[in-house]
Each structure stands twice: as C-alpha cells, then as structure tokens.
Amino acid sequence: MRKETQKLLVLSLLGFVSVNLAAQQKAKKDTVKGLDEVVVTALGIKRHDRALGYVAEKVEAKTFEETQNNNWAQSMEGKVAGLKIQTAGAGPLGTSRITLRGEKSIMMDHNYALIVVDGVPMGNSTTGSGTAAYGAGSGGDVPIDLGNGLNSINPDDIESVTVLKGASAAALYGSRAANGALMITTKSGKTKNGKLRVTFNSSSSFDSVLKWPDWQYEYGQGTLATNTAGNFYYSYGLSADGPSTGGTSSAFGPKFAGQYYFQYDPNVLGQSKERQLWRPYENNIKGFWRTGSTYSNSISVESSNDKTSFRSSLTYLNNEWMMPNTGFDRFNFALSFAHQLTKKLKISTKFAYNTTSSDNLPATGYNNQSISYFMIFQNPNVDLEWYKPIWKPGQEQVDQIHPFSSFIDNPYMIAYEMLNGVRKKTITGNITADYQFNKNFSLMLRSGIEILNEKRTTKRPWSSANYLKGFYREQFIKNQEYNNDVLFSYKGDWNKFSISASAGGSIRYNEYLMTDYQAIGLKTAGEYSLTNALSIPVKYPAPRDKHVDSVYGLLTLGYDNKIFVDVTGRNDWSSTLPKQNRSFFYPSVSTSFILSDIFNLKSNNLNLWKLRASWAKVGIDSDPYLLDNYYTASNITGSVVAPTTFNNPSLKPEKNTNIEAGMDFSLFKNRLNINLTAYQNMSENQIIPVSLPSESGYSKRVINAGKIRNRGLELSADILAVKGENFSWKVGGNWSTNENRVMTLPEGFDGIVSNVGDVVFYKMEVGGSLGDMYGFKLLRTPDGKVIYGDNGLPARPADIEKVGNAFPKWRAGLQNDFKIKNFTISFSFDGQYGGIAYSQSHHKMSEQGKLKSTLPGRDNPGGMIVGDGVVQNPDGSFSPNIKGVLVSSYYGDYYRRANVETNSFSTDFIKLRDARIAYSFPKETIKSIGLDDLTIAIFGKNLWMWTKFPLFDPEVATLDNATITPGVEMGQLPTARTVGFQLNLKF
C-alpha cells in the first residue's frame, strides 16, 4: 500500500493523473509529508517545492488566526529564518519595517521586502507627518504612526504567506522585489459537495505595559540647593525656606525622609499655605496608563463545487490603546469569487475594502507634544492627579495647568486635546481570466488595483508649548496603483523530460498626491477649522507618480522529476530613470537536485535529500523626481523654495546580484525536516545623496556609487518529536546570521548616510557595515580607564567614533506545539544577539536623576562624587582622579546627550513571543447543535522578556517622519503585554 501511494503521488506531480488520497491519509502522513507541498511563487505561479532552486518558506493561516495581532505581519516575528519585523514602538497600528536577509541599501527606506497579495504587488508606501523624531523646543510637531497599506490586510482573510527571501526567488517581480517578497494568498471558498460553511471568529484581548524604566523614588525635585543652615531643601516658589527650586526638571532634591516643605497646592494653583509632607508618588507615571483592549469579530461564508467557489467575510475590530483616548476602529470586507465559465475559461476575482478610523493616535518622539516627553520630565514628588483638571478655572481651552514648566505640556491635554485623527479607506482587488487552450497551452490575464484615500487631522490647543495660539491641520492623501499583466504558458512532457515555459508583460502605474492645509494660530480657542486661522492656510501639493513597463519570461526544465532548472529574464522601462538608462534587463538561473532519488538513497530514515542553488541579478530604479531640479511651494502663498539637493539627469539603475545555495533534508518518515541555506548578495551602483560644499548652492547631490555585500547562513528545522493518538509534540526552530560589509564608497563621500537628532550618525567606511553607529564616546587610557578633566568631569573627545552596530549578529526562534486529546498548547520564543541602541530617554532621565542608576553618591557629604578614572598629567602620565563634583553635575555630564557611549545598550533579548491554550469540543458533542467545529482558547503575546536594555523594549526603532530607523530610541512608547480569549465556530 505504501509503495502504491508513492507511485500515485509521483504521477500526480508529473501532471499525468490526479488522485484523491483521503482514504490513505495515514500513509501520506507517515511517508510523504511535504513531497507534494505547493507554494506560491512570483507572479502568483504555484510550484512544487521540490522543483525550486531557492528558499520559499510557507506560513499557514493558523499563525495569523491564532495570534490576533493588530498588524498581521507581526504574527510572523521569530518564525521565519532571516525575516525581521520591526516597528517604531509608536502606538497601536504598529507600522512594520519588513526586511529579509539584512540591509542591502544605504537608504533605510529602500530595504523593505515587497508585499504581494494574490499575485498583485502592493505599493506599501508610508506618508509621515513631516516631522523629525527630535524636535523639542523647535516649535514643530511630532511623528505619528498612522499606518500604511499593510494595516488594511485582515489577518482572518489570509490563507498563507510564502516568504521568497532572495532576489532569485523574486526576480520576476522586478526591482521592488530585490529585497525579497512576501506572497500573500487570501482565502477562497473551499467546501465539500457545495455545502455552505459559515465561520465565526471572536477575540477579546487586553494590553498592559510589558516593561517600565527603573525609576527612582528616593529623592525628589531639586538641584542640591541648600538653605542658610546648609541643609538641602525644596520650595515651590519663594518661601521662608529659601528661593524657589520648583522650576527644575531634575530630581536631585532632598531625600524623602518625612520632612515638610512648601509645595504645589492644586487647590490654589500655587504655593501651599502650610508646609506639606515631602513624599513620593510612585504611581505618577504608570498611573497615567490604562489596560488597553481590542475586540475583534469576524464572520465568513463560503461554498464551492466543481465549477464555482466563493467566499465573503466581514470583520470589525475596535482597539482602545493603553494611552487614554487613543485607539482605532477597523472594518474589513472581502469577497472572493471564481467560476469555470467553460471547460477552457475560468474567471476569478478578489476584492477587499477596508476602513481605518481614529479620533486620536498617540504621538511619539522627543517633543513637548508627546506623552514620552512628559514621562521623561515628570518628577517623583509630583502627583499625577494635579494635572487632571487640564484647564485653569475659567480658562477652558485657553490656558492649561502645567505648574512646573511652560515647556512641559499637561499629559491629559496631550491625550484629550492634542488629537491626531485619521480616516482611511483602502480598496484592493484583482480580476483574473485563465484560458486553457489545450492540455499544453494556457493564457492568464490579470488586472489589479490598490486605491487609498486618507484624511488626517491635527489639533493643537491654545497654550500648548509649541503653539501658544493653537494649530490645526488637514492632510489629504490619494495613492492609486494599477497593475496589469498577461502571462502565456506552456507545459509539456516527453518521456522523462518536462518543460514549462511562460512569457508575459506588465504595466504598472502609481499615482500619488498629498495636499496639506495648515492653520497656524486659531482666532477662537477650541474651534478647529481652516476658516478660524490667524494666518492664511497654506497648501503644499506633493505629487509622486511613477510608471514601469515590463516584459518577462520563465523557463523550467525537469528530468525524471529529479533534476530541475529554472531560467528567468525580465526587462523594465522605468519613468524614474533618464531615457538612455530607462531600459534595463536582469536574469536569474536556479536549479534543484533530488539527490535522494538520483542516488536511490530513499529509506525510512532518509525520505528526501535536495540540493539547490540559484543566481540572480536584479535592476533597481530610483524614487521619482531625482533627475531634474524642482522648486517646491514655500510657506508664503504664491512663492517657491529653491531645491537644496542637486539631482542627477544621468542616473543608472542599481544592481543587486544574489547567489544562494542550500540543502533540504527530510528524515525518519518526514518527522525531521532540516533546511540549510548560504547566500551572498552584492548591491552596486547605489543611488545615494552625498554632501556638497555650501558655496555650490546645494547641500547634497544624487549619484550612483557604492558597493554593499551581505553574506549569511540560515537554518530551520521542524521535528515531530512525539506522535500518538492522544498526544503529539511538534517543535520548530530557526537561526540566521547576516554579515554586512561596505566594499567601496565614492570619492568625496564623508560616509554619513543619516543621523537622528544630530547625535547618532549612521556612517559608512570601507570594511565597515550598514548600521554602524557613530557618536561621541568617553576618552579612555590605553588600558580602558575613563579620563577626567581638571573640573572633575569626563574629558570630551574631539570627534565622533564608532560605538557599535544597530543590527544583531544573529536571530533565532523556537516554536512548540502540543496536542493532548482535545487540547492544543503552543508557545514560541525568539531572540537576538549582538546589536546596540542609543536611548534619548535614558540620557534625559539620567541627566535629571530620575533612574536608580543615578542614586550612588547622593548620600555623600555635600552631595559630592568623585568619578572613577584618571586625570592626565602634564608629562602625559595618568594619576587617579580625586576631584569631587556635585552628583547633579556628574550625572548630567556623564550621561549628556552627545555621549552616545554611555547612553547605548545591548539589544540582546529573549521573548516569550506568544502562547496559546485551546480546547476543541468533540465532533459528536457539537454535531447535535449543528456545529462542525467549536474551539475556545486563551492566548498571550509578549508575555515575558529577558533583556539588559534599560527602557521599554530592546526591539527599538525611531519613527523619523516616515522612516523607521533601527538602533535609536527617541521617545519610544511602551510595548504591550497581551492576554486574550478567542472563540471559533464553524457550521
């Protein structure tokens, strides 16, 4: 029986017969699991995994259904080797930075993997708020994570995601797939005998803060001021105890020891009439945050028969995030329909409509208007309740309560008055016609659309630190992408040889327009409209259109179902390149050898041994409008601003060359599956801006230059450790490492690619790596001792140095699935090792004495501390440092903002990423009430974490306008720990 089953499956693979193996399911599970695995590859072409010469890793629907993330992509974190999903820690939408196999481009935004839904690429563009992460005191606004096109994808509608990691795997998709691709296949109707099936999913989850900074509540507000008796004291305003010390943001004041001082009295909005108990309020930051909640309900209806299939689903999600008065609502409607019109013609269509709306999403960044800023500046002796009235009596919407500094906005005003609203509508869909001329020839025509319409509103009240007379803004974003492609295919077999050939072309057009209206200053407080502007609203039109025409072909040769060779070629014509360089061609070759069949090695212990290899070269065009110089609209109506970047009318496409090789093993009746891959990627002719001397009239120019190499290893394994009738245990694991090296750089290039807050500089040097972080460090002796100056403070270096790298040396993940009768228990861990991140919040809280790490030395006589290190003598020798300084001065200088070394920390971590316990009711129990399936579950995400990173989360990145920059924490918001309940039923 087992041999006959294998023969039938091989025949099925060769396309000669199709068999129903339901009656032989046990034999299939025991002997040939994975042999007939089908994955979706470029252009939506379904291929058998054994024929592929590259890695195509498949993630099944249950990953997205069971973890219930607000953003589907985060469900895959730690589950695919070489895949990194990173957010900026900026709120509930969690826009994802999705990368595969490291960083290939000098420009941070050019490293994202392509997202393809049902064969149609998504634009996946992100429009930022136009503001930098560091903006305190600049009078500007703050970055806000308003999501992108990926947020519109409903996790419950995903059938599978195939991860194509290298350029070889995604060569047919062109330049956007140079960094790999995630191929999403959405669900379609799949039922037996035309039966109508209804599925209902409901989940409720609750969020709390995963990790807090280690705040100190032993000392209060102050700067070590002493009264006439020589004792430390505190006074809110001038009092009998001495001059005011209540205006500082520092916490180097007196120790909480039961004494009484004149303090702030919320009843009089000023100094208390009597001295009050000097005490800490240990819940004065944590108490601002609440338990967040997410409720999601989804219903789908599907049916199919031999000619027609359809599926329709509705999903509604309501999120109230952990920060008060923030969250969003999301509505999804999806429709899938396919019909075999004739024996030769099949028409199918998929359509999805999404709305995302929010009256307020949280702001991030180091700026007066973010709650992160308030958390940094809140002092241990200040009660959170004092801020709750928001407005001074009789001054509603006019003057806020912020008694300690006019630069620190009231946290409740930030939450309830500084509103960042969004109304977003997204339509995606495609229609496909498949015509089968005969058993060999077929034609596919497909047209896909992605339409985004978005309105954003920004409200800033009177008396806010950056807008004393208020501010109102309306942004309108239209982003439309059209993809039309045709594919003509041939399949044939001669004896032991098989051939499959496809040729086609595509037309892609993207049209983007953003308009921006700003009312700077409001005539009437609390009235948010453009007609209420003190100054004339300014319109900023910002188009960004692009057109690409392509032709491509694929040839697959097979011999005896044991040896396979793929050859692809593609030529693009891009509107973003000059006429002479607009056309560029790129090929790929891949092969796979089923060694276990070739050498007749198959047995119960060795079921599959596959060798694969591939080579690909991909051309990459540029962003729009980098060829000519353009004027832009200024803040003064009717005027323009000259460009500061000198564009390049002779740009060439970037080149990305990928080589990959690996082996796949399936052992012990397929209970152990191992995949090992080694790869190299070389990126050349990168399109980068380089600095120009100011006398040129420009700050930068755009050139082609630079060569970046990535090399890495990936290992993944799946083990069916225990298999029994009532108990089974499956283990999955992955590990990946990537080495990035800068091979060449252009002459005259200073190496600085970008910076965050003018403190952390991403700088490249030949032999270095992308992600190398530079900044000021401590001066040290040859044996590593800190050098101090004559003033008793650390000496300052003259120039920046390399501090570390933002990207880890390796990542790993481990998944466990247990089945005990009707119970299923699953949990996954993942972690990383080797990267660092700079923390702006750590700098500021340390400088102000807010963290426990600043407690040493406080009890010293006079509040003096001697830094551990040496001073340099006139003859160049070193002596121990003996100069004492005030602890406030010492910590303020040691952790100063520019000192990247003392404010950077390892981002190593291990996380219990998710866990789930589910119970499925026996079929015989639920059949009487008309149900086919009834499952209840409890699940959790980010339940536990080990890390030495001192703040909220080591998976840190900064939202700088629209760019997510790893390696820097700049006003990060807390990460959520989630616990939830889930109900799934089918009938």
Automatic annotation (TrEMBL):
<dbReference type="InterPro" id="IPR023996">
    <property type="entry name" value="TonB-dep_OMP_SusC/RagA"/>
</dbReference>
<keyword id="KW-0732">Signal</keyword>
<keyword id="KW-0798">TonB box</keyword>
<keyword id="KW-1134">Transmembrane beta strand</keyword>
<dbReference type="GO" id="GO:0015344">
    <property type="term" value="F:siderophore uptake transmembrane transporter activity"/>
</dbReference>
<dbReference type="GO" id="GO:0009279">
    <property type="term" value="C:cell outer membrane"/>
</dbReference>
<keyword id="KW-0472">Membrane</keyword>
<protein>
    <submittedName>
        <fullName>SusC/RagA family TonB-linked outer membrane protein</fullName>
    </submittedName>
</protein>
<dbReference type="Pfam" id="PF07715">
    <property type="entry name" value="Plug"/>
</dbReference>
<feature type="domain" description="TonB-dependent receptor-like beta-barrel">
    <location>
        <begin position="421"/>
        <end position="943"/>
    </location>
</feature>
<keyword id="KW-0812">Transmembrane</keyword>
<dbReference type="InterPro" id="IPR036942">
    <property type="entry name" value="Beta-barrel_TonB_sf"/>
</dbReference>
<keyword id="KW-0998">Cell outer membrane</keyword>
<dbReference type="InterPro" id="IPR000531">
    <property type="entry name" value="Beta-barrel_TonB"/>
</dbReference>
<dbReference type="GO" id="GO:0044718">
    <property type="term" value="P:siderophore transmembrane transport"/>
</dbReference>
<comment type="similarity">
    <text>Belongs to the TonB-dependent receptor family.</text>
</comment>
<dbReference type="InterPro" id="IPR012910">
    <property type="entry name" value="Plug_dom"/>
</dbReference>
<dbReference type="InterPro" id="IPR039426">
    <property type="entry name" value="TonB-dep_rcpt-like"/>
</dbReference>
<dbReference type="Pfam" id="PF00593">
    <property type="entry name" value="TonB_dep_Rec_b-barrel"/>
</dbReference>
<keyword id="KW-0813">Transport</keyword>
<keyword id="KW-0675">Receptor</keyword>
<feature type="domain" description="TonB-dependent receptor plug">
    <location>
        <begin position="57"/>
        <end position="181"/>
    </location>
</feature>
<feature type="signal peptide">
    <location>
        <begin position="1"/>
        <end position="22"/>
    </location>
</feature>
<dbReference type="InterPro" id="IPR023997">
    <property type="entry name" value="TonB-dep_OMP_SusC/RagA_CS"/>
</dbReference>
<dbReference type="InterPro" id="IPR037066">
    <property type="entry name" value="Plug_dom_sf"/>
</dbReference>
